[in-house]
Fold this protein.
Amino acid sequence: MSEGWSNGRWTLFKCPLCGSRSYVQVRVQRSNGEWYTTEFFQCFDCSVMFKDPVLFSRCDSSRLDAEVLRGPGRVKPSDET
């Protein structure tokens, strides 16, 4: 296996939003009580979801859109139009 991977996990993961080094694969419980594993991952600290831990780790947070960083439904700062 290539460098950076261990036991099927990307060990060099770093969330570009909060700096966390931990992530988990998202599991969802169906209405019948059964659990299934989705194709998504989630940062352990800030809970942002993503599909590829390698690509997400390489994301440059300084280039993210301000609306993405602010999040849905948040109030815009007064200096924004």
